[in-house]
Write a structure and sequence with these properties.
Blueprint: H1 2-23, H2 27-46, H3 53-66, H4 72-116, H5 121-159, H6 162-175, H7 182-189, H8 193-199, H9 206-215, H10 225-236, H11 242-273, H12 295-330, E1 332-333, E2 336-337, H13 338-352, H14 357-365, H15 373-385, H16 403-412, H17 417-428, H18 434-444, H19 447-475
Antiparallel strand pairs: 1-2
Helix pairs in contact: 4-5, 5-12, 7-8, 8-18, 9-11, 9-19, 10-11, 10-16, 10-17, 13-14, 14-15, 15-16, 17-19, 18-19
Length: about 475
């Protein structure tokens, strides 16, 4: 009896699938449009909207611009570029002030205190040069951009513009088997990938939510912007005349961000055709009216619920990373430290990718926080060159105020323009930070999808860097 019921159920499902394909993939859209059209006709005849004509006219006029076929996408990219520009420019001064306070002032004071209380050198190194300094760099680099980006993003959300972004991107994401709301989660990822993963809760379909979670890493988070800007400035912009250097550097960074969106779409398509095979679900998005942003609520939501929450997670993971950085630089086997052994061993593989052993080790150590990549690279490069007097001591992370001095150190370490370009690509296409991975696990409850989220981007990164490197060397 049960077998007959099961067979009958399968036949009903098969017939339902056949009938669904017969009505066409746009049936749901056509049905919803006809329902709303009929509802509008009935409302026009039965409802008198006193004093609302002007507001409706404003909303409708603005929607014709921001959701138009020709202006929708340019305005969307322009808005995103303006938000990025404000975030980058606005965070420079407070980041420098925080770095001066936490690194240049507190760090020497803590070292002096350690000497005064006769703290063992190794304990002082682990706690102050390792854990504290990693935490200090994360706070200095991460806090100001998030404190600017998240309020701006929330203001756009509160104003009613972000649903228009989802409306514009819906067709594009549906073509690759993903959900239109993934455009919103992708945009949130530009502030922080962990926050972008959390924001995928707005996607109802479990399959499409997994796709959005896995591909959110292709959005350049604020922890990767400093690396992109510095490398673009000293290796790409510097190759052009001074009056063009700034523009070229900015275009290079924007190009990497757009490349991330491209990989997000391509990877979404690949996942939807393989391990997450299925149809893109259709969602009915009723565009809300435009409204004045609520400033106080926006500040609370963005600063408390998003900025502080994400920053706290990053600090928790950065502390042990700092300890690891100090240990690998100060524990020796023979005449070389653990870091030097790994760099020597991995360097041939790194060169195949246009990178080097220093970069590979820096990204392994910096899994807890992307913000410490550049300080770690400089520390490891100085250590391999034997320039011990540049930093405060062996295994201490640092950054240089002069971009030219930074370039001189990197070039002395064997860096070329190809190394800079490969690093920019790898910074985009590498595994998520530990904060994001932890968030992915908490959101999915799955080790499988957390592992896929970690390994898929780095596999793509290795492949892209290898391909670009071989083409570069053939042409050069």
């Amino acid at each position: 009896m049960n077998e007959k019921i099961t067979q009958k159920g399968y036949s009903i499902i098969a017939e339902a699938n056949m009938l669904r394909w017969e009505v066409g993939e746009n049936f749901h859209d056509a049905l919803m449009e006809s329902i709303y059209a009929d509802a509008q006709k009935i409302a026009d005849k039965a409802v008198v909207m006193l004093g609302a004509e002007k507001k409706f006219g404003f909303d409708q006029t603005l929607d014709k611009i921001v959701t138009s076929k020709w202006l929708g996408f340019p305005l969307m990219f322009l808005t995103l570029a303006v938000v990025f520009w404000i975030t980058i420019e606005g965070s420079n001064v407070p980041s420098s002030m925080l770095a001066a306070l936490l690194v240049d002032t507190f760090h020497p004071a803590l070292k002096t205190f350690a000497v005064n209380v006769s703290l063992p050198w190794w304990l002082s190194g682990v706690l102050i040069d390792g854990a504290y300094l990693a935490m200090a760099w994360v706070v200095a680099v991460m806090l100001p951009p998030m404190a600017i980006f998240f309020p701006l993003f929330t203001l756009l959300e509160d104003f009613g513009y972000l649903p228009r972004v989802a409306f514009n991107m819906d067709g594009l994401y549906r073509k690759v088997g993903a959900h239109g709301k993934q455009a919103l989660t992708m945009s949130m990822g530009f502030g922080c990938n962990a926050a972008g993963v959390i924001s995928t809760r707005i996607i109802d379909s479990p399959r499409e939510r997994i796709i959005a979670i896995i591909t959110n890493n292709f959005s350049l988070c604020n922890g990767r912007w400093p690396t992109q800007i510095l490398i673009a400035t000293i290796f790409i912009g510097a190759a052009f005349p001074a009056y063009l250097a700034g523009i070229i550097s900015a275009l290079a960074v924007v190009g990497i961000a757009l490349l991330g969106i491209f990989f997000s779409l391509v990877t979404s398509w690949g996942l939807s055709k393989t391990i997450l095979k299925g149809e893109a679900s259709v969602f009915s998005l009723e565009l809300p009216p435009y409204r004045p942003p609520r400033i106080l609520q926006t500040l609370y939501t963005s600063l408390i619920d998003r900025t502080i929450f994400v920053l706290w997670r990053a600090v928790v993971f950065a502390l042990p990373a700092g300890v690891v950085i100090w240990l690998v630089a100060n524990i020796h086997i023979g005449d070389l430290s653990l870091a030097q052994h790994f760099i020597s061993w991995s360097n041939p593989f790194g060169l195949l990718l246009g990178l080097n052993g220093v970069i590979l080790l820096a990204y392994i150590i910096a899994v807890p926080a992307n913000e410490i990549v550049i300080p770690t690279i400089l520390m490891l490069t100085v250590m391999t060159l034997g320039i011990v007097d540049v930093s405060a001591g062996t295994g201490v992370m640092f950054e240089l105020e002069s971009e030219m001095l930074t370039k001189e150190i990197l070039v002395a370490g064997g860096w070329t323009t190809l190394t800079g370009i490969s690093l920019m690509l790898f910074s985009l296409l590498h595994n998520p930070c530990s904060t994001t991975l932890y968030t992915i696990y908490k959101e999915t409850g799955s080790i499988k999808w957390t592992t896929v989220s970690a390994l898929l981007p780095i596999a793509i990164g290795f492949a892209v860097c290898f391909f670009v490197t071989q083409i570069w060397r053939l042409i050069a």
